[in-house]
Amino acid sequence: MSSIDEIRDARIAKLELLKKKGLNPYPAESKRELTLKEAVDNFTDLEKNKEAKWIAGRIMSIRGQGAIIFITLYDGTENFQGLLKKDVLGDKKFDFWSEVVDIGDFLEIQGNFFTTKRGEKTVEAKDWRMLSKSLRPLPEKWHGLKDVEERFRKRYLDILMNPEIKDIFEKKAKFWDATREFMKKKGFLEVETPTLEVTTGGAEATPFKTHYNDYDLDVYLRISIGELWQKRLMAAGFTKTFEIGRAYRNEGTSPEHAQEFTNMEFYSAYTDFNDGMKLVREMYIDIAKAVFSTTKFTSKGHTFDLVDEWVKIDYAEEIKKQTGVDIHTASEKEMEKKLKELGVEYDGKNRERLMDSLWKYCRKSISGPAFLINHPTLVAPLAKSNADGKTVQRFQPIFAGSEVGNGYSELNDPLEQGERFVVQQKLIDKGDTEAMMADMEFVEMLEYGMPPTCGFGFGERMLTILLDKPLRELQAFPLMKPKKE
């Protein structure tokens, strides 16, 4: 078996042979008249009219020998069979093909369409032309790239050789198309908000930090999709806004976490979290039908149907039911002890992180669809309080043991919001890198007045659950460490 270097050297020799014949191995223009999908869809007419057409694509396979060669072309829309015959092309063109063409090359073929005895739609070449000479071999069709790091590093080959991966990205595009269509149908205005911020707001996560040279100012990449900015728009007189965009979080990689991802957030004035739950249920069902043509899913060992009743689960009651811990009365030491008993790894020993770790243990057993409600005030610093003073009007959809969204009745009391920010700042001062930064200009906005508002955000994690795939598979080009030479 030849090494990659030997194969590459042989292909470079073929490249030079093309040049010696006065042929450009990388021309800018193409004579293509039909995509391969158009060739398939219009095959009956093409075969009947016997009119030669130019088609193009990458060679995925070469079969045959002697005076007859069959190839498979792929152009991203469809596969199509080509036939090269020595008595049709002529000796020179046919022999030259054999001297310079390899699997992986892009080329175009002019020919007539016919059906083989085996029923294969085929184009018989009258002429051919190189469009892009490949210098490295493609992975074997049936084995592909097996090493996970190699798959993500050479994602272009992973997608090319694996139709299932290509399908994921097509579904992802439909997912966001369906989301945008739903929001606009409901009267929401699409907006854009800053991705560089002086203080990050709207979520609890460690941000990426950079420097803005012109202002000589340290800034952060946003961790939410403009939550505090979209609320300013509510104060400005807009009543329904949404944004779909990229968020950045300096956190570890897991099946449900990545450093950058796409999220959507909406804000609706004069509504509360009960209105939000109704809208979100309708939206998720609508998206599922648009993308998957079903509302029934199996993921991570869970099965659920989005048209079923969405059960409401109380945050503290569920933790107490599963672990015996009352998070409202238990001490930090008692919560730590229970987490150790359960074998749960956790970061941070402050009350907020301990409660969150207990909940994350409990959520794994919930198939859904469900809404998690009545979160403790400490874990939701931007949500409006319930009458009990201990919990807030927050809701999170739960599918297959995971949270797939986050929303609440937005806190619009400026004095209470300022006090909540003070609490978060104390957590930061004690080393909690995920606590929420205080944005006092946002508090100033609230002092001018913001109407009752429901806000909600969700993102690619929901799609990972519906696809039953880790988040990294939904990243076209996930972040990789530089390759060591």
Task: Describe the overall structure.
- The protein has 485 residues and is an alpha+beta fold.
- It folds into 2 domains: 4-138, Nucleic acid-binding proteins (OB fold (Dihydrolipoamide Acetyltransferase, E2P)); 158-310 and 368-474, Bira Bifunctional Protein, Domain 2 (BirA Bifunctional Protein, domain 2, 2-Layer Sandwich).
- It contains 16 helices and 19 strands.
- The strands form 4 sheets. Strands 6, 10, 11, 14, 15, 16, 17, 18 and 19 form a 9-stranded mixed sheet that branches.
- α9 (227-236) packs parallel to α15 and α14 packs antiparallel against α15.
- It is elongated.
- It starts with a helix and ends in an 18-residue tail after the last helix.
- 34% of the residues are buried.
